[in-house]
Amino acid sequence: MEKLYESLLQGNKDWVAKKLKENPNFFKELAKGQNPPVLWIGCSDSRVPANEITNTKSGEVFVHRNIANMVVHTDTNMLSVLDFAVNILEVKHVIVCGHYGCGGIQAAMSHKHFGGVIDNWLRNIKDVYRLHNKELDEIKDPVLRDRRLTELNIFEQVYNLCKTSIIQSAWEAHKRPHVHGWVYDVAHGLIKDLNVTVRDQSEMHNIYKIDF
Ligand code: CO
Known about the structure:
- This protein is an alpha/beta fold.
- It has two domains: 1-33, no CATH class; 35-208, Beta-carbonic Anhydrase, Chain A.
- The chain contains nine helices and five strands.
- It has helices at residues 2-22, 26-31, 50-54, 76-88, 103-109, 118-131, 133-137, 142-163, 165-174; strands at residues 38-43, 61-66, 93-99, 178-184, 191-193.
- A five-stranded mixed sheet has the order 2-1-3-4-5.
- Helix 3 links the parallel strand 1 and strand 2 (61-66).
- Helix 5 packs across helix 6.
- The structure holds cobalt (II) ion.
- Cobalt (II) ion is lined by residues 43, 45, 68, 99, 102-104.
């Protein structure tokens, strides 16, 4: 156990050496500040590291991750990240990236008791199931049903972002950010754009539109 812990620190030293070899000013440049054009909202799953799967470098992606890439309106952590990304960093894109084979989605589709806090988090995914109950219940293959809920959950989290005053007031004032939904496939490593990009209030359900 101690070995694994130490190997991470050694890994860091190796990485620093590699970066300095490629570019002696690498850390000097990063130390000046960040200006990432993208906010990534992804799953905490260890197989979905935002920078690695998009081949991006330090400083290029502002990241928030939680179980099943959720946008929950009472989550002050997510809201603070969103507020900072949109209003201070002025990101141009917000991407919700889910992934097939998500443990959070699978858990939400079951009736298991996982624990006092996580059950309440998973309930937000069960709400997505209930919203799309008819479509999902018609899918008999459990793997395909799981994949479809993964996609529907991404759509709903994109829409949840758009419902926030943070996103809507940025659209009004700056015509950004564009909000995207992507799905990553752990089985082959490719990301699929689900083409649910929202750029303004026009496609939103009227009840969620905020007047400015
Ligand atoms: Co996941």
